[in-house]
Amino acid sequence: MAGYFEGQRVLVTGASSGIGRAFAARIAADGGDLVLVARREAILRAQADELHAQFGTRVEVVAADLGAPGAALGVTDLLARRGITVEALVNNAGLGIHGDLAGADLAAVSSQIAVNVTALTELTAILLPGMIAHGRGAVVNVASTAAFQPVPHMAVYAATKAYVLSFTRALWSETRGSGVRVLAVSPGATDTAFFDIAGEAASVGSRRAPEQVVAATVRALRSNRPDIVDGAANALLARVACRLPSTLAITFAERSVRPEPAAAQSN
Ligand SMILES: NC(=O)c1ccc[n+]([C@@H]2O[C@H](COP(=O)([O-])OP(=O)(O)OC[C@H]3O[C@@H](n4cnc5c(N)ncnc54)[C@H](OP(=O)(O)O)[C@@H]3O)[C@@H](O)[C@H]2O)c1
């Protein structure tokens, strides 16, 4: 079977690490070309060289802070000037900050929303019309199992991921019959640098590998589902969370990511 992204130029955000890096490797192995976006340019350039040497992939690197206002337009304008057409989009860049909202650093609160919500929405809005006009392409948005219930101590992060899930499900419907495949993928705890920022208390259950998230996504792209949860145990927990009375779901979520007593005291 041909690779899902074979012959397509795919823009991957957050490609310098973790799940995004695994997406880039899989797309290159499957015969796609890439646009890699993240802040750490040197890492992206080294990755571009590796993927080109290994698979002959044509890789464009765009160093951008997706938390900055107008970042999405900055990226797409730059690509237009370089004559690059993006045929599929993986909105993967994201971050989660653990801690209660009261007393949180305002810049950190806003950067989560800017990267997880604003940049994802704007990139999709800018690139989707071209895909629809060509009658092909894909938009993959990385949500989280945090999308399925409110998560105390990570209120903003969970709310951004609920947005990603809701937004993507609606777009799936808007694009039906257009030839463009729209999919949200919700990983549970995955073994990446995510927890360098989110902290260990944010990690619920055993961690899966980024490559497992990517494999589940590529399988789902061949179906017609609007969204998937990566991993059977994560899928079961997400389903249960949606069916519980909201006070219970919130209580369980609070217990799962409650800060360690020492960390709580130092806050
Ligand atoms: N790991 C998990 O347990 C888990 C679970 C559920 C959902 N997710 C979601 O999976 C996605 C990928 O996360 P990951 O686990 O692979 O974490 P990661 O290893 O920390 O990777 C995050 C990526 O996002 C990029 N990024 C962060 N802030 C950015 C900014 N301001 N501008 C541009 N790029 C930015 C980072 O690149 P630079 O630092 O180079 O900019 C990096 O490439 C996120 O949306 C996350 O919410 C992760």
Question: Could you characterize the architecture of this molecule?
Answer:
This protein is of the alpha/beta class and 267 residues long. The protein is built from ten helices and seven strands. The chain has a seven-stranded parallel β-sheet with strand order 3-2-1-4-5-6-7, with helices on both faces. α1 crosses α7. The longest helix is centred in the middle third of the chain and has 29 residues, at 106-134. The protein is globular, with a radius of gyration of 18 Å. NADP nicotinamide-adenine-dinucleotide phosphate binds next to α1.
Summary, kept brief:
The protein is of the alpha/beta class and 267 residues long. It contains ten helices and seven strands. It has helices spanning 18-29, 41-55, 71-81, 106-134, 155-174, 194-198, 210-221, 232-243, 246-257, 261-266, and strands spanning 9-13, 33-38, 59-63, 88-91, 137-142, 180-186, 227-229.
Secondary structure elements and pairings:
Elements: E1 9-13, H1 18-29, E2 33-38, H2 41-55, E3 59-63, H3 71-81, E4 88-91, H4 106-134, E5 137-142, H5 155-174, E6 180-186, H6 194-198, H7 210-221, E7 227-229, H8 232-243, H9 246-257, H10 261-266
Parallel strand pairs: 1-2, 1-4, 2-3, 4-5, 5-6, 6-7
Helix pairs in contact: 1-7, 3-4, 4-5
The structure holds NADP nicotinamide-adenine-dinucleotide phosphate.
